[in-house]
Amino acid sequence: MKGGWVIGRGTQKVVVVGRLWGGLRQRPRQATTSATPGSLTSSDFVRPARKRVCYPARAMEPASMTSGAKVGGLELDEGIESLARKQAEWRRKSPREKAGVARTVLASLESLSWSDAKWNGTPWAEGQLVLEGYDAKANCRDSHAKAHAASQKMIFGLVIKRYLQKVIKELSEGGSGSERPAKKVGAYDVFPCDALTVPKVAGEAWCLPSSGSPEGRKTAPEGVCLVLGAGNQNFLSMIDVLDRLFMHDQVVILKHHPLRPFLFAPYASILRPLTDAGLVHQVQDQGVEFSQMICGHSLVDHIHVTGSGATHDAICKTLERAGRQSDVEITCELGCVTPWIVSNGSWTKKEIAFQSKTLAFSKKFGGGANCLSPQVLIVDNDWPQLGSFLDSLKGSLRSLPTPPAYYPGASKRLDALCSQYADSQLESVAGTPHPSTLSTSGTSTKPLLSVQLLDCGLHGDDGFNDAALKTEAFAPVLSIVRVKAGNDTRRFLRQAVNIANEECEGSLSCSVSCPGAVAEGSSFNDVLADLKFGSVGVNCSTTFGYVATTAGGGWGAYPGLYSKDDCGSGNGYIGNIGNRLGYAKTVVKSPSVNSFADISQVPPALISEILCSCFLSSGTLQGAGRAFSVLVKALVKAFAGLFSSSNASRGGYKRIE
Questions:
Q1: Are 365 and 478 in contact (CB under 8 A)?
Q2: Which pLDDT score, from 0 to 100, does residue 4 have?
């Protein structure tokens, strides 16, 4: 099989061959506010290096519609008070009782009522297309834009479902973290994760039992947890809410990110059992003063944010002004200057082609606006195949569709970083524009930025420029760090790990590409042990590291590096649903060539809709019925279109759209 999408449901797996569509139609396909620095209008500004150069914050677009300062229909104070009154009751519930509550949320998700929920009178998924610049001027009618929206909706539902299934399983069985590790690597106990949704990609939870109880598993406070929503992926805030509720016994108020107000609609549908029970409420972003007020509220005892160091610092200042800096715990995921190490050694042509494409897609996805987007490529300058790898990388960057760089401020941040390098160190790699931006029905409203390759030079030389290692760009840029290791694999990996750990800002995620012989070597586990990152991908993106949170892994900064004065990639983690002692990081491994892990193609909208309706069902019969219904509706619509065209050609009535 060549490429594909793998959908997991319970213990079953279904593989959909992605190349089938590509074989039928040879066309590249890709998956893909004004604010001051540090303001709380957003939980996702530029993620600056701690005590490093900081580029201007990403400007936020205002929400198209916001609710009043209310929680669950109540005034803010009264609403938060009603949540706080539920805290003790929720904490007293047994794990099995909480599993029962999680089942009601799963049933709400499987009802699919959220799928076509309306926001401002239109389906919420169209809000994502407008935000991300896919065919916004054509009212989201372009087939490629629709395919993107349908695939994102499918991913959204599946990630949440798998997370809930894992929560229900662990709470029902009363997981205590007492299982024995599968192996020991240095000081780490290594536990296998449950099967992931992609064949040949396996996850492991690496734990440091000597560090004591699992980080973040403290007795829930009497007050409320405030979750500040993420700005770049639809499912992140939902997982954050569910994690704080079920894994940390906290009632939650969610403030949505100003870029994604449309998520209020599907979230309201999925979370209805929790909001009806008074355990979770959600509000829209309403500006700086509102954010400061809710962060400093006397009944908010915990704040969890997925965003930036600037937002973290603004939260700390708000708490200081309110005199609550010692009363409120902050957990956070704050991004990273993600390193991607490419080992030397003897590579086959297929290995070079596949790994370079994996790296290229990981860089281009979302216009680089992801916390795990690779930004620093570390290579051995003495590796004989380096030229072949870089040529293959540039070829993939050119051939893969270029999505709009939708995140506000991307162009400015890109220019600011590139301005610190000489023209001779810059190479712009123009890619193929995303098909939706070329359609006759519409044009993207967001910029299409070419990936910029920055040559930092030879590490250790006087002319070495490390600017790209110090601040997360959140834009399509990839810097190249060359190490002089004499094509000695052990020597190179030792140097590369040190650069990643000590010189790349943050500790959230890191990937290592290597030929099979290196990955299977006896000393490779030592390399993985030495990497101080919360998620490590071997021959794959750490996207699969996040997915592993639904299978027993976790997601967050490497432990022990956070302080309020130097926040790095953040504090705490989500996941580790099995409550393993001393959880530290998740490692995901894939073969150097694994067509199942090729996620660079997006299926047609109809395929994603069928899969979404089928695998988000509660049973096989319901899934089959839903899939059949989706297919019938598509056929009826197609025939209606043909009939309309026929009438139009004869001068008859035209279908009004």
A1: no
A2: 39
Quote the Cα angle for 556-560-563, to 5°. Answer: 90
Judged by phi (left if over 0) then psi (alpha if -120 to 50, else beta), residue 575 lies in left
Burial class of residue 192 (count of CB atoms within 10 Å of its CB; 0-12, 13-18, 19+): middle
Reduce the DSSP state of residue 195 to 3 states and report it: coil
CA distance 152 to 76: 32
Residues whose CB is less than 8 angstroms from the CB of residue 221 and which lie 6 or more positions away in sequence, other chains included: 87, 250, 301, 302, 329
Which tokens belong to 98? Answer: 């909480």
End-to-end Cα spacing for the chain: 40
Q: Where are the beta strands (DSSP E) in 434-476?
A: 451-458
CA 568 to chain centre: 18
Kindly state the greatest CA–CA separation across the chain.
80
pLDDT < 50: residue spans in the chain? 1-68, 213-214, 216, 440-442, 645-657
State how far the Cα of 584 lies from the Cα of 307, in Å rounded to an integer.
21
Q: Which residue has the tokens 């297309």?
A: 129
Residue type, 232: N
The pLDDT of residue 639: 72
Q: State the pTM of this model.
A: 0.86
Q: What pLDDT score does 139 carry?
A: 57
Exposed/middle/buried for residue 71 (C-beta within 10 Å: 0-12, 13-18, 19+): buried
**Of the candidates 10, 4, 103, 180, the residue with the CA atom closest to the CA atom of residue 551:** 10
| Model pLDDT for residues 12-65, shown as the tens digit of each residue | 333 333 332 333 233 333 333 333 333 333 333 233 333 333 333 333 333 323
What is d(CA 256, CA 43) in angstroms, rounded to the nearest whole number? 9
Tell me what pLDDT residue 222 has: 77
Strands (E) in 567-612, as ranges, are 570-571, 573-575, 583-589
Distance CA 211, CA 209 (A): 5
> Are the C-beta atoms of 405 and 436 separated by less than 8 Å?
no
By CB neighbour count within 10 A (0-12 exposed, 13-18 middle, 19+ buried), where does 48 fall?
A: buried
The H or E element that residue 498 is part of is helix 489-503
Per residue, what are the HEC states of 369-425? CCCCCEEEEEEECCCCCHHHHHHHHHHHHHHCEECCCCCCCHHHHHHHHHCCCCHHH
Using an 8 Å Cβ cutoff, are 512 and 527 in contact?
A: yes
Tokens of 410: 């991307």
pLDDT score, position 219: 58
User: What is the total residue count of the chain?
Assistant: 657
Nearest Cα to Cα of residue 374 among 456, 466, 459, 480: 480
Contact in structure between 239 and 160 (CB atoms under 8 Å): yes
- At residue 217, the pLDDT reads 53
* Residue 610 to residue 618: CA distance in whole angstroms: 15
Q: Determine the pLDDT at residue 439.
A: 52
Residue written as token pair 């069928």: 610
Note whether 170 and 246 are within 8 A (CB): no
| Backbone φ and ψ of 167, nearest 5° | -60, -45
Q: Where are the alpha helices (DSSP H) in 280-348?
A: 288-295, 309-321
CA gap 305, 170 in Å, rounded: 25
Q: Are 374 and 339 in contact (CB under 8 A)?
A: yes
DSSP state for residue 61 in the 8-state scheme: P
Let me know: does 16 contact 607? Beta carbons within 8 Å: yes
